[in-house]
Structures are given as structure tokens and as C-alpha cells.
Amino acid sequence: MKANRREFLTLAGAVGLVGGRTLSAAGTPARREDQPGQPGGREGKTVKSRIRVVQIKVFPEKGKLAANHKKLMGILDDIVGATHASPAPDVVVTPEGFLDGYVSTEPSVTKADMVNYAIDPATSEYTLEAAAWARRNETWLIYGCTRKENDQVFNTALIYDRSGSLAGMYDKLHLQKHDLKYTPGRHLNVYQSDFGPFGVMICADRRWPETARTLTLRGARVIFNPTYGMRGDLNLCMMRTRSYENGIFIAFTHPGQSLVTGPEGNVLCNEEDAAPTRSGAAGRTYVITEIDLSKAPANKGGHIADRRPDVYGL
Fold first, then answer.
1. At 254, phi and psi to the nearest 5?
2. Residue of 151, 184, 187 whose CA lies nearest to 169
3. CATH number at residue 164
């Protein structure tokens, strides 16, 4: 009997992870990702299809943690007030390194200096307040910061769920130039939510096709992409391509641009400031976009389902 496309791809190893296993940061076998309670796991609950994503669009100040956090909390309060009579937002995403203003780009700040701008999410007054906001408003919050762990410093996106719990921490993987002041990340996890598995990548991570492809193969239908660097025509082409080749949505969140691309390579939102300032932005400080995740074939169809890993040899 001739196998259909899905059966063939399953036999060829295109679906899921090799051997049904992932490796932990230490390189040891980790628990299967489809176990309840694990990132990307299935809880047997109804998965929400439509989500409202809020992208923060304002430039933080370099090295001013208290001022930047106060600015964010003010914007979050504005969002609550503005959406009081409409469906509440599901996810709020800040730009990369928002808390410290992505201070690593400053030539005067050395690698040794970075610890002075790093926080411990478990004890930081800023993250505790952010978590409380997420809990009060039952909203996912992805907060960009510099994080310290032992003697290392990471470029991190903190992921708070609707209960205000720290559901995960994604550390930027691909480091070049000023980012070499950080320690590179060690994983590409997906996170289970009421709207299904999602992924996070930070800024330059998007330039490596393997990043979005790995998150898609692990079940993500949407990737949240806090960023601070390059934008413009080249980036627009890149983000449309990443969405199209993987059949997913990507929310590119820059201090001067809110961009959301869809699985057909389409653009759902592209609000860009022509002349952003260091004290804020020329336009709105946040943008809300509704995404229908049911339109993302992701790893169930399209280019992903027709892959030929049996031939690639990578």
C-alpha cells in the first residue's frame, strides 16, 4: 500500500525531533517535549485560536533601568485603560534589552561592566512588579533584559504567563560584535500556553534560518521576536521569508517598529517610525495586532510537511 505524504514524512523522520528526544543544556537527554508540564507539552485543553499581541514601540534609555521600567509600567497601564471595553491583550512583548536600554551597544560599556546592568529575575524589584502586572491582567508578558546567573550575563527575554509565573527564560543564541559581551544561550525551547506552543528568538537570531525552523518543528505557530538592531527593507524581506518558509506568524518587536508577518509571507502589521527619538517614539508607544493562529500550518502542512531530511544530510 502506498504511503500518503504524511506517512512517508513520518517514516523519513521529518516530523518531530530525532529519536523523540532533545538534549538539555548540559548535553544529557531531556524529558520528551510532549509530556504535560514541559515546554511545548499538550495539556489536553482547548487551544485558543485568536490572540491579541501588543508590541511595545518606544526607545528605552541606555543604562537607565529604573527609568525604563517606570516607562514600561506606564505604557502597560495605558494598555489596560485603552482595552478596558474591548478584548484584553493576550501577549505583551517589549523590544530586546528594554530594561537596561540594550546598553551593550555602548562602546564605553565593557564586558566586565555588563554585570552592573544585569538583574536576577527572582529578586529584582522590576521583574517582581512586571510579574504582578501579568497576574492582575491575566496577560502573557515577554520582558527584555540583561540577566545575571552566577558569574555569567545573558541577553534574555523573560516569559511570564497569565498567572504571573516565570514560565521560561530565553537567552539570545547568536552573538556578534557588541553581543559578545554576553554569554550565548543554550536552548531553543518552545513554551506551552492556552494558545498552543510558541517560540521566542531575540534580534539577530532571526538571521539564521535554523532558529525559526527549529522552533517550528517543535510546534510553534507563532514566534515572538524582541529586537533592537537592523530594520528596513532587508529585514522586511527576511521576516516575510521566515514566516512563509515555516508557515508561522512572527511578531518582530523593535523600539521603532512593530511588524507582524504571516504564514503566506503576508504583512499583518508594519508600523514604523520615520524619526524615532531616544526619549520615546515619533508615533504610538504600542501597537495591537490580532492573529488567527488557525491559519498557520506550521509543522502540519506546507513547506514543513514536504521537507526531505532523508536527503539533506545536514
1. -115, 150
2. 187
3. 3.60.110.10
